[in-house]
Every structure is written in structure tokens, then in C-alpha cells.
Design a protein that fits this description.
Distance between the termini: 61 Å
Order of helices and strands: HHHHHHHHHEE
Helix content: 55-70%
Largest sheet: 2 strands, antiparallel
Strand content: 5-15%
Structural class: mainly alpha
Number of helices: 9
Oligomer: single chain
Radius of gyration: 23 Å
Strand order of the largest sheet: 1-2
Shape: flat
């Protein structure tokens, strides 16, 4: 019946009732995308991410970032990642941002540019996680960075990164059991 204005009104009424529902925001934006209404689609996403309470904000941000990336708006995609990083410093966001920059290598004629941008994201992420003393998250980030350098880097970059990688440290401590017998116990630990 092609009553798209009525569909819009239904989404609007539902979102007035429950503005925290991420799925409704995403579906509303998808409707505008299907109708090729780029400005309305962005407006819906912008209104959605500005909501103070959302039930699953990570899904909304991912949908918005995927939309901008799919439209080929890479500067907008970078801006969205930067805005998201102001709200959260989660390691998955950093890795996703770096992966996005790395994936642009196939679209760019100059290979050095995408490598530099990807490395810049990894360096910022590593510094932020180091300052926050998030060692496990930092180890995940470094593993992702190592994979990137194996695929796109040179030997110098790989060697530099190896020095940052976590090492396994074996610690020994003496433990006395109930019989009074002393044993050495080994404990393996990753240290960044």
C-alpha cells in the first residue's frame, strides 16, 4: 500500500512510548535507508544516539557505523568512532576502529596511508589501555595489532611490536601442606 508516512508515524509513536528501545530506532533508520532518505536516516540515528538511556547502545552505535561505512562515508565513520570513544574506551571499539581503517586499504591507491592511520589508532588504543591499567584488554589489542602487522607490516614494525607483547612469567612460591612438607608451586602469568 506504500503508506510510508503512516509507518513513520507508528515508529514515532512507539519511540515516544519507549525511547530506550534500540531495535525500534534501528528499524526506523533502516526504513529510511530503504526509502533512500539519507538525511532522515542520519537524523534518526543522531536522535537515537543522543538518548540518555538505551537498552543496548552498542548495537545502535554499530548499526550507525555500519550504515555510514556502507554508504562510503569514511570520514563520518571515523567521526562516529571518535564520538563513541569519548563515551567508552572498550577494547572492542578500538579494535573495530583499527579494523575499519585497515579495511580501507583495498579502496585507497596509496598503501602507506591506510597503514599509518591504522597504526595511529592502535597506538592511541595501546596508550589509553596502558594508562587505564587494563592489562588483559591491552593484550587482546596487541594480538590484534600483531595480526595486522603480519598481514600488512614490514619487519621493523613487527620487531617493534614484539617488544610490547606480553610475556609469560613463571613465579615460584613455597607452599606447606598439612603434613608440614614444603613444595614449590609454579604459577604462570601473562605480563604486559
Amino acid at each position: 500500500m506504500r503508506e510510508f508516512d503512516r509507518c513513520r508515524k507508528l515508529y514515532q509513536k512507539f519511540l515516544e512510548f519507549n525511547p530506550a528501545n534500540v531495535y525500534a530506532w534501528i528499524k526506523y533508520a533502516e526504513l529510511e535507508q530503504l526509502l533512500e532518505e539519507e538525511e532522515l536516516c542520519r537524523a534518526v540515528f543522531e536522535l537515537a544516539v543522543s538518548q540518555p538511556l538505551l537498552d543496548m547502545p552498542e548495537l545502535l552505535w554499530k548499526a550507525y557505523i555500519d550504515y555510514e561505512f556502507g554508504e562510503g562515508q569514511y570520514d563520518n565513520t571515523r567521526e562516529l568512532y571518535e564520538r563513541l570513544l569519548q563515551r567508552t574506551k572498550h577494547v572492542k571499539v578500538w579494535i573495530s576502529y583499527a579494523d575499519m581503517e585497515a579495511s580501507l586499504g583495498e579502496f585507497e591507491s596509496e598503501q602507506a596511508t591506510f597503514r599509518d592511520r591504522t597504526r595511529a589508532v592502535y597506538k592511541r588504543a595501546e596508550q589509553a589501555l596502558k594508562e587505564a591499567q587494563l592489562t588483559e584488554e591491552r593484550a587482546l589489542l596487541l594480538e590484534s595489532w600483531r595480526d595486522f602487522e603480519k598481514a600488512h607490516g614490514d619487519e621493523e614494525a613487527q620487531a617493534s611490536l614484539r617488544s610490547k607483547m606480553p610475556r609469560k612469567i613463571k613465579k615460584r612460591r613455597k607452599v606447606t601442606n598439612d603434613d608440614g612438607v614444603t613444595k614449590e608451586k609454579r604459577k604462570k602469568k601473562k605480563e604486559c
